[in-house]
Write a structure and sequence with these properties.
about 625 residues; alpha/beta; Beta-Lactamase; Heat Shock Protein 90; 4 domains; six-stranded mixed beta sheet; five-stranded antiparallel beta sheet; 18 helices; about 40% helix; elongated
């Protein structure tokens, strides 16, 4: 008989045997090649199709694998139909049960290379079998036709299991669309250079595979190499988490440094509040004494004194409100909130908050020119300015404040950007320290109790906003820190965003029915008095208010505190929207400014107005007039 070249590349011969070496299964390719019934090929029948000179070597190879060899290969000749011989390269691999017990073996046979060049076959097959990456041949029908041992090692499936199931069975469901799309691309003749998907292992876990593939359209085969990149993916996820943790740590450091600045300012802020609080309380006491001691009606002179004392008390309260507003803006935790802002109020608040700290060391001078609007986080820019003013003050010795100056100037650059400079006549910075002044944890005053993070965080805030923070300094003469922020091309802000003031007053005698809800009784009574000549009901909890409304209380307006124990204004709004939806648009929320993340998200999602504490009488009057007009429709 003569060896002939018969093409079975589309479907390799697969032979499966038990632990005794007896054949239990052959695939259709065996039947087609030998043209013998499958039953005749089972048991030892297949061996008669092997050339008599190759049978011993084949049986020895089987015995070697069953005896413990992981993998073996041999070249043998198989008798095809009609008596021709086909030279095949046979790979024999062990088969294991789910518990890891050896249950038999499987042989896969492919055409051998041209015998005139035997070395080419040996090298190619050796590379295929030993390459670390997963190498495979797949058919256009969606099945593996051949896989190398790396697939078994990586996924845990046997070669037989990989060849007998559709490839998509092994692909993660979320990656099916990508595989199907890649197949379409390959079937048109386009090579695939980059595809990443997940393959399921026999133990139920998944491995990430990165593919390089090319198709042979005439043979309807795909030749591919898949690299296991699971460890790379795990490291990428760890790196991503580490970066997120780093960002979170940076946010925490920014907030911690801001709180450290508040701690530094605490004594000064207390001083700034105690001054107006002194004459507020004193004048209130005097007014009370005057009203108790004086006969009614009060004499004209007493009325003048009463007016002056109340005017001064009001001015002091406004001053306290301004200081508290600055503290709220400076210390709020929602660091990522970016919007278009005016820098003037931010500068004013920074000056007010640091005034006491500065005045004991230097005179503060300001030169404020026009500034463009910028897109920024107000609290963070406020933190930068407060930090620069505090640093300027602390660089000056506590000697004679009249001999030193801290100067703040603001202007628009030639490029149209906003520029704010803080200069001091302090000790300056040595040249060898100047290049490190913005480094984390670096400080020129190690015994001053600072963290060494202030200027580093300020520099980071500036660059995050697309700007820059620079320093110029001369030892013994002082330093100048300059913050530059890019201008934003935006229209000027509209008038107060509160409800529109009606052009005509409400009808004379029109009384509104109003429900006031606040867990602090004195706040509720104060608002009740401020509302004046209207029919006002007061509830001290959300539950009490909801009960009144469900009992039939019909109101034109509902003033509800946003943050209350047990049932917040947010929860109350949800109940009203579900049970009494016509009243939900009539709610006006009262806020002291202590917003949680949930409260801020809620306020941004509804159209209901917000009335800040302490109450602004003009804003309240506008709300009442607007409600009176609406009730006429």
């Amino acid at each position: 008989m003569t060896a002939v070249a018969t093409d079975i590349s589309r479907s390799p011969l697969i032979w499966i045997g038990d632990r005794t070496g007896h054949c239990t299964h052959v695939n259709e390719a065996w039947v087609e090649l030998t043209r013998r019934p499958r039953a005749e090929l089972l048991g030892d029948g297949w061996l008669t199709s092997v050339h008599v000179d190759d049978r011993d070597a084949v049986l020895q190879t089987h015995a070697s694998v069953l005896g413990g060899s992981e993998l073996a290969s041999i070249q043998a000749r198989i008798a095809a139909a009609g008596g021709s011989l086909l030279s095949l390269h046979v790979t024999v691999s062990p088969r294991f049960s789910d518990s890891g017990e050896l249950v038999g073996l499987m042989a896969t046979a492919h055409p051998a290379a041209d015998t005139s060049h035997p070395s080419s076959y040996t090298v190619a097959e050796d590379i295929f079998e030993r390459i670390i990456d997963g190498v495979c041949v797949a058919g256009f029908d969606g099945y593996f036709k051949r896989v190398n041992p790396s697939w078994v090692k990586t996924l845990g499936w046997s070669v037989d299991e990989l060849l007998q199931r559709p490839i998509l069975d092994f692909v993660h469901p979320d990656d099916h669309d990508g595989v199907i799309s890649a197949r379409r691309q390959l079937h048109t003749g386009t090579s695939l250079q980059h595809l990443i998907n997940r393959y399921i292992c026999k133990d139920g876990s998944y491995r990430w595979m990165e593919w390089r593939s090319v198709a042979h359209a005439e043979r309807r085969l795909v030749y591919a190499v898949a690299r296991d990149i699971t460890e790379q993916k795990i490291n990428e996820e760890r790196l991503h988490k580490a970066r997120q943790d780093q960002l979170d740590l940076q946010r925490r450091l920014v907030f911690a440094e801001r709180m450290a600045s508040v701690g530094t300012l605490a004594a000064g802020v207390a001083h700034e509040i105690n001054n107006p609080l002194t004459y507020v309380l004193t004048n209130i006491d005097l007014v009370t004494d005057l009203l108790v001691a004086s006969p009614a009606p009060l004499p004209h002179t007493d009325l003048d004194d009463l007016h002056d004392m109340l005017t001064e008390a009001r001015a002091g309260a406004d001053r306290i409100r301004s200081i508290v507003a600055g503290l709220k803006s400076f210390s709020r935790a929602e660091d990522d909130r970016v919007e278009i802002i005016d820098l003037g109020p931010v500068i004013d608040r920074a000056i007010n908050m640091t005034a006491n700290e500065v005045r004991h060391r230097a005179r503060l001078t300001t030169t404020l020119g026009p500034l463009p609007r910028v897109r920024a986080n107000e609290a963070r820019i406020g933190q930068v300015l407060v930090n620069l003013l505090l640093n300027a003050a602390q660089s000056i010795p506590e000697t004679s404040s009249a001999a030193h100056v801290v100067a703040l100037s603001a202007s628009t650059t030639a490029c149209g950007d906003a520029q704010i400079s803080v200069s001091d006549s302090g000790e300056g910075i040595d040249p060898e320290h100047l290049s490190r002044i913005f480094d984390p944890f670096f400080t020129t005053r190690p015994h001053a109790g600072g963290t060494g993070l202030g200027l580093s965080i300020c520099h980071s805030i500036a660059t995050t906003h697309g700007g820059e923070l620079k320093v110029d300094s001369v030892p013994g003469e002082g330093s100048t820190f300059t913050l530059t922020l890019p201008a934003v091309d935006a229209p000027p802000p509209l008038a107060s965003p509160g409800p529109p003031v009606p052009q005509t007053p409400p009808p004379p005698g029109r009384r509104l029915s109003i429900l006031v809800i606040d867990d602090e009784p004195r706040v509720g009574r104060a608002l009740q008095r401020l509302i004046g000549d209207h029919n006002v009901h007061v509830a001290h909890s959300g539950k009490e208010a909801l009960a009144l409304l469900q009992q039939g209380l019909d109101v034109d307006l509902i003033f509800s505190d946003l943050m209350m124990p047990e049932m917040s204004g947010i929860t109350l709004h949800g109940h009203i929207q579900r049970l009494l939806p016509h009243l939900a648009p009539r709610m006006i929320f009262i806020s002291g400014g202590a917003f949680t993340a949930q409260a801020r998200a809620f306020v941004e999602s509804v159209d209901n107005p917000i009335l800040d504490k302490p109450f602004d009488r003009d804003v309240l009057r506008s709300l009442l007039e607007h409600a009176a007009l609406a009730s006429q429709d």
